[in-house]
Amino acid sequence: MIWKGGGDDNGVAPVIAALLILALTIFLTGIFVVGILYSGNVDSTPIAGITISDNNGVITLTHFSGDTLPAGEYAILVDGIDQTQAFQAEDVDFSPGMKLTWDLGITHPLHQVSVVYTGTGKSVVIAEKQFYREGGVEVNAAFTAVITEGKNATSQVKTGISGSKPLPGVIADLADIWVVLHFVSDQAAVEFTAEESSADIEYSWTSGNGQTADTKAAVFTYNTAGSYTVRLDIRNTTSGDTGTGSMILAVRDPGITAMTWVKSSETYTTGLWDIAGRGYSDGSGGTGYTDRVWRLQFSNPTTHGFQMIFYFEKTGETPSTQVEYHVPSLEKKWYHITSVYDQMGTSPQDRSKLYIYGVDTGTIRGPITESLPLNIPTKSRYDVTRWDVNNGNFTTEMQHEVDFPLTSEEIAEIYTLEMGGYAG
């Protein structure tokens, strides 16, 4: 019986084996098909290693490995809203080693950040992270600034001078406040004061050049021309509410820029004509040379041409530097003339420049004194004016003066913006 039974078992075994082989074949075939489909998805959808983090309101996406996400083929969603533009990533290939950031701020809620690939026409999530920040009420983090050393040029840049047009936005809109380095100390000190004040407020300042403070008012010192972002973060220790404020501070070298459009009423070949200038009152209404800052004049074109003269302290009637632009003859057309004196220049050519139509074309003539600052006495300042107004030899328009040197690029851009009105 035992052997017979064994014989029956042996008869069943081949059937079971066949069924097992069939099942295994179907199973393996299924895996193979799935493998083909999976491989197809790998080919069409990038595989990228991306981490997502939030640090004090700044969302950071870090691409550390894998495929590049081509520009225009991915989107960054924050709480379900496309914020790719906020990360400045619309035209960026997001590749390994890159970081994309957005300062959302800590007062806004944050629940989910997703990186979605859209290159296949469908949305495929590449990376995603959940957050649980509900945000909070924002505390007023506005602050004011006062120049304690140096010179505040904000009024000159933002509003121009009396009787003249303000400088174009290409200059005025570059910063919230302008500071000129002091010509002796080569520095500018600025005191910033928070408007919000209570015993429950914590303050955290950053200067843009490495200085910090944790008091209501902070004094930061700058000794290099440039653009700086001053930031204030405040927190109410009782409620936990927070706030952030910032201001762009432009620090410039000491000096002056005078700019005007000039047109002659005749074609001159000889003569000496004062065109425009800036001076200070001597207390009796006079405009002696000792009170002048700069003067634009025209002389014999065969020998001099347009001339810009800068006046300096304690030099009497003698200008310290004179810059000339030679012209074969003065035509009856508009000239865009810009003169620049840069107190920090290391040579007469660096300090004194004359631009015609936005191009530096002047030559230095007779630098006399190189160690004195521009003539800036503590007297009432005259408006820019034509000194030959009674003779009618020249017409001047769009006069500007700013209390620091403009760069060649800024001058060229201003000329380009204004030239449409002076084609004749």
Description:
This protein has 424 residues and is an alpha+beta fold. The chain has 3 domains: 48-133, Immunoglobulin-like, CATH 2.60.40; 143-252, Immunoglobulins (Immunoglobulin-like, Sandwich); 255-422, Jelly Rolls, CATH 2.60.120.200. It is built from 5 helices and 26 strands. The protein has helices at residues 2-44, 154-159, 169-172, 348-351, 408-418; strands spanning 48-55, 58-66, 74-78, 81-82, 99-103, 110-117, 124-133, 143-149, 151-152, 177-180, 188-194, 201-206, 212-213, 217-222, 226-236, 242-252, 255-264, 273-279, 292-298, 306-310, 321-325, 334-342, 352-356, 359-360, 363-365, 394-402. The longest helix is centred in the N-terminal third of the chain and has 43 residues, at 2-44. It starts with a helix and ends in a 6-residue tail after the last helix. Residues 1-42 and 283-289 have low confidence and may be disordered.
Cα separation of the termini: 124 Å
Number of domains: 3
What's the CATH architecture name of the largest domain? Sandwich
Strand order of the largest sheet: 9-10-16-15-12-13
Low-confidence region ranges: 1-42, 283-289
Strand content: 35-45%
User: How large is the count of helical segments?
Assistant: 5
- Radius of gyration, Cα only, in angstroms? 36 Å
Structural class category: alpha+beta
> CATH fold name of the largest domain, please?
Jelly Rolls
Report the mean per-residue pLDDT as an integer: 79
Strand count, sense and barrel status of the largest sheet are:
6 strands, mixed
Layout of secondary structure:
Blueprint: H1 2-44, E1 48-55, E2 58-66, E3 74-78, E4 81-82, E5 99-103, E6 110-117, E7 124-133, E8 143-149, E9 151-152, H2 154-159, H3 169-172, E10 177-180, E11 188-194, E12 201-206, E13 212-213, E14 217-222, E15 226-236, E16 242-252, E17 255-264, E18 273-279, E19 292-298, E20 306-310, E21 321-325, E22 334-342, H4 348-351, E23 352-356, E24 359-360, E25 363-365, E26 394-402, H5 408-418
Parallel strand pairs: 10-16
Antiparallel strand pairs: 1-2, 2-5, 3-4, 3-6, 6-7, 8-11, 9-10, 11-14, 12-13, 12-15, 15-16, 17-22, 17-26, 18-19, 19-20, 20-21, 21-25, 22-23, 23-24
